[in-house]
């Protein structure tokens, strides 16, 4: 099997570890890691018009409209050198965003990290104590998990139909999940 360039999106419920796993994969495969959360925070910190809009959604724990998110991601992706691949975390979050992104920059693997709501909730509560992130306040955690089930979970079917879905359980240690993920990717022809 010929070695493939990794052009991956990684998704899962809040607290699934997708950001951590995405960063580890990007390091392993020597490709850029692109976190939509960082893109949003950058826009917010710069107080751009998009950033001001984004802040309203981040603070409420609700997902931003597709047009806003697509605009931020599209602009950022065009400014990066992605010829050797990428790992994208936190985007797309809806089927419409996924369809938009497939036209912009087709992915060849969509990694779904599955964890139960209970595990996600516990992880987010612990993270809240450590980082004091405004989007992890107790009342917004449940909203984020509900939003995930309603809007983002359907991505699994979208990517399954495209033949690029890779599911992995995220309830083990960071190191174990990473090791299993790298092995599964290798079986698909993605070798660092």
UniProtKB/TrEMBL annotation:
Its predominant location is cytoplasm
Q: Where in the cell is it found?
A: Cytoplasm
Query: Which positions bind ATP?
Result: 15-20, 127, 172
Q: Which parts of the sequence are annotated with region: NMP?
A: 35-64
The record's section on SUPFAM superfamilies has: P-loop containing nucleoside triphosphate hydrolases
Provide the residue positions that the database annotates as binding AMP. 36, 41, 90-93, 97, 133, 144
Pathway(s) the chain acts in = Purine metabolism; AMP biosynthesis via salvage pathway; AMP from ADP: step 1/1
Q: Which GO terms describe its biological process?
A: AMP salvage
Give UniProt keywords alphabetically.
Answer: ATP-binding, Cytoplasm, Kinase, Nucleotide biosynthesis, Nucleotide-binding, Transferase
Signal peptide start-end: none
Its UniProt entry gives the catalysed reaction(s) as:
AMP + ATP = 2 ADP
Q: What is its EC number?
A: 2.7.4.3
Q: Which GO terms describe its cellular component?
A: cytoplasm
User: What Pfam families does its record include?
Assistant: ADK (PF00406)
MF-aspect GO terms: AMP kinase activity; ATP binding
Entry remark concerning the domains of this protein: Consists of three domains, a large central CORE domain and two small peripheral domains, NMPbind and LID, which undergo movements during catalysis. The LID domain closes over the site of phosphoryl transfer upon ATP binding. Assembling and dissambling the active center during each catalytic cycle provides an effective means to prevent ATP hydrolysis.
The record's comment on protein family reads: Belongs to the adenylate kinase family.
What is its biological role? Catalyzes the reversible transfer of the terminal phosphate group between ATP and AMP. Plays an important role in cellular energy homeostasis and in adenine nucleotide metabolism.
Listed under subunit, the entry gives:
Monomer.
According to UniProt, the name of this protein is Adenylate kinase
* Originating organism: candidate division WWE3 bacterium
Q: What is the lineage of its organism?
A: Bacteria, Katanobacteria
Gene it is expressed from:
adk
């Amino acid at each position: 099997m010929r070695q493939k360039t990794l052009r991956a999106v990684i998704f899962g419920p809040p607290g699934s570890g997708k950001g951590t796993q995405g960063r580890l994969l990007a390091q392993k495969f020597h490709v850029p890691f692109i976190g939509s959360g960082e893109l949003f925070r950058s826009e917010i910190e710069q107080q751009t018009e998009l950033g001001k809009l984004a802040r309203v959604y981040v603070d409420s724990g609700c997902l931003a409209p597709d047009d806003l998110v697509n605009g931020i991601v599209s602009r950022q992706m065009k400014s990066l050198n992605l010829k050797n691949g990428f790992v994208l975390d936190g985007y797309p979050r809806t089927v419409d965003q996924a369809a938009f992104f497939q036209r912009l920059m087709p992915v060849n693997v969509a990694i779904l990290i599955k964890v139960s709501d209970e595990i996600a909730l516990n992880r987010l509560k612990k993270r809240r104590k450590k980082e004091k992130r405004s989007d992890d306040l107790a009342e917004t955690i449940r909203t984020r998990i509900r939003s995930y089930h309603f809007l983002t979970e359907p991505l699994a079917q979208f990517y399954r139909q495209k033949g690029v879905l890779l599911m992995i359980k995220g309830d083990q240690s960071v190191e174990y999940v990473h090791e299993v993920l790298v092995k599964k990717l290798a079986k698909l022809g993605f070798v660092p």
